[in-house]
Design goal:
Blueprint (H helix, E strand, L loop, with lengths): L1 H18 L9 E2 L2 H18 L3 E10 L6 H18 L5 E6 L2 E7 L3 H18 L6 E9 H6 L1
Parallel strand pairs: 1-3
Antiparallel strand pairs: 2-4, 2-5, 3-4
Helix pairs in contact: 3-4
């Protein structure tokens, strides 16, 4: 019995080592879209149980009178990704939905503070712009409860 206990303790240490983040990254946690869907489902369930406040923010690149060839789209999409990474808190999640859109899950926040997050993203995005400035970001925000019920 004692041998089994020590094996379990060794196994948990191995598991903890494998589960830890490999590098310390500032800002929001990026995950693939399928992983984001899983996180979405988990937080939807947690909201039911705890009443936690969670918002889903859709960030869409808006090209104003400029060509949107593949190169431009990739360039601005990467700028938006970097801006979200830097502007959003470490406990929040984001993913790329398509070349022009990112989804951000904001945990434990009020609807009013979602506006502050969008302003921080805009500030970071504008700092990174080196090409034309005819690009903006449109935001749509909904409570995860709203989205889950639809």
């Amino acid at each position: 019995m004692g041998e089994r206990t020590s094996q379990a303790a060794g196994a948990i240490e191995d598991i903890k080592y494998r589960l830890r983040e490999k590098e310390s990254i500032e800002g929001a946690y990026y995950c693939t879209y399928p992983s984001f869907v899983d996180v979405y489902h988990v937080f939807g369930r947690m909201m039911e149980r705890t009443g936690m406040s969670v918002f889903l923010m859709l960030c869409t690149l808006n090209f104003i009178n400029i060509e949107t060839d593949d190169e431009n789209q990739k360039y601005y999409s990467e700028l938006l990704r970097e801006s979200i990474q830097k502007a959003v808190r470490k406990g929040d999640f984001y993913t790329r939905y398509n070349i022009q859109q990112y989804l951000v899950m904001l945990i434990g926040i009020t609807q009013e503070n979602c506006t502050l997050v969008s302003k921080r993203i805009n500030k970071e995005f504008n700092k990174r712009l080196t090409r034309r400035k005819n690009v903006s970001i449109d935001y749509y925000v909904a409570s995860l409860g709203e989205v889950c019920n639809d």
